[in-house]
Write a structure and sequence with these properties.
Blueprint lengths: L3 E2 L5 E5 L2 H17 L4 H20 L4 E10 L2 E10 L7 H4 L13 H7 L3 E7 L3 E9 L12
Antiparallel strand pairs: 1-3, 2-3, 3-4, 4-6, 5-6
Length: 149
Amino acid sequence: MTSASDPATATTCPIGSDADLAWVRHQVRQFAAEMGFGLVQQTKLVTAASELARNTLVHGGGGHAKITPLVKGTTPGLQLSFTDNGPGIRDLELAMSDGYTTAGGLGLGLSGAKRLVDEFSIDTTPGEGTEVTLIAWAAGVPGTRQGTR
């Protein structure tokens, strides 16, 4: 993942309750809007963040999210990292496959989040925890549609 960031502008949000999940979603949406992400991009990023924050709470026993503004050339972006000290992911390939679930959901959490962003990585060690990092780049303001007023 290549990008430039300013650690002084990063925000860390604890994840230990359902209220924290709402706060993470709020913070991600606010950062994305301020950085020029369009509404659809904001929604994708918040959806990915929501899935990963919930995984941090439910599967990792809690942890934290770190939101870091990025710039690549003139393109703004956001890096989101979700870290826990839980049991880790024993079979990462299986966990990334669509339909796999340990919590009775649809099994689209990790793989779905990956599809919603530009860059995605997981660092996990069984018995030591997991860190999931994603990056999304703002695509810019859409142009005016032809033939409309």
